[in-house]
Write a structure and sequence with these properties.
2 copies of one chain form a homodimer. By secondary structure, the first copy, chain A, is mainly alpha-helical. Helix content of chain A is about 50%, strand content about 10%. The first copy, chain A, has a 3-stranded antiparallel sheet with strand order 2-1-3. In chain A, strand 1 and strand 2 form a beta hairpin. The longest helix of chain A has about 30 residues. The relative contact order of chain A is 0.15. At the A-B interface, helix 1, helix 2, helix 3, helix 4 and strand 1 of A face helix 1, helix 2, helix 3, helix 4 and strand 1 of B.
């Protein structure tokens, strides 16, 4: 079975400075993200071995390891693409219209997403998702990598609020990190994800 | 904005007996599921009001309420369709082949899914999902309705292991409940979800 693999960044480690330092990006990608990739593969291997041996006594541990590490891998894969040295400003076109529809305005969306990020207790993510069941844009506030979300949540924009994502640059001043994030959001990427998620949907209700 | 609504069951409350009683199905659908639908709508309303008033001091509570209730609504909506009075037996065709590929065999899959269900501590679900990023079938063990899963998990088969799902019929004997579940799994529905997920989601994460 194919393994999960660590994707390359599509920009240099230092490309997002001064918003996020090259030192953070290098550690975050090469160490943290890699650990999730390896952890997801290990968990799948452990579960396959448990099935082969018909010994499922450790299933709770392996399922937790799988959920944590796979979610960590998926989250970071999206997060890297959500940022760009050419990012910032605001969404336009259909994504902008959908944000206005579901959140009232871009400013209201940004305030809500920011509050969700700053409100996280412990480690987590603030994320904008396409909720495929209700066909809505919603914000979810993830616990760790894998808690507090509905199945069928398609990620469009994800902000990592684990301390490893910002501490070397911002220490305890999380609001400055979130403020800097808005300078580098790759709205073209978010728009492309939105387009894929909403194929065939012509109006919002 | 459109509200979430409680879907009708596609069979009578008693249709799954003796595996699940009509009494459980009626309470489960009319009371529990309805509460999640109302809770999801209320959470969205509360968040909209918070944005309008620019008072986001309660955002953690409302996000938790949204995740819990929306997930509860989606989970039950899938769960009802995953069961049928004409269910049981095993999957066939492409779904059966995929289960063999990702789990070794149907028996190995069923043992793993069952162990995941019986291992839940507290309330939760054992679920078979299509993992969009890896293009794999995997089992996830949900905590409550909304914990311990990855974004981009497309549900194919969901088994409710909350006590309200089985207690009136089975009390503390959870293995008998899970055994009965396999008698009523609607594999045609699972196959249809597998077809949609494996054919129409590969680009959703812009790989």
């Amino acid at each position: 079975m194919t393994k999960y693999v660590l994707p390359d960044l599509s920009y240099d480690y230092g490309a997002l400075e001064p918003n996020i330092s090259g030192r953070i990006m290098e550690l975050h990608h090469d160490k943290h993200h890699l650990a999730y990739v390896n952890g997801a593969n290990s968990a799948l291997d452990a579960l396959a071995e448990a099935r082969d041996k018909n010994d499922l006594t450790m299933v709770n541990k392996f399922q937790k390891d799988l959920a944590f590490n796979l979610a960590g891998h998926v989250n970071h894969t999206v997060f890297w693409k959500n940022m760009s040295p050419d990012g910032g400003d605001k969404p336009t076109g259909e994504l902008a219209a959908a944000i206005d529809h579901f959140f009232g305005s871009f400013d209201a969306f940004r305030a809500h997403f920011t509050a969700s990020a700053l409100g996280i207790q412990g480690s987590g993510w603030s994320i904008l998702v396409w909720e495929m069941f209700g066909q809505k844009l919603i914000i979810e506030q993830l616990y760790d990598h894998q808690g507090n979300l509905a199945v069928g949540s398609i990620p469009l924009l994800m902000l990592d609020m684990w301390e490893h994502a910002f501490y070397l640059d911002y220490q305890n001043v999380k609001p400055e990190y979130v403020k800097a994030f808005w300078n580098i959001v790759n709205w073209a990427d978010v728009q492309a994800r939105f387009d894929e998620a909403t194929v065939g949907i012509t109006s919002f209700d």
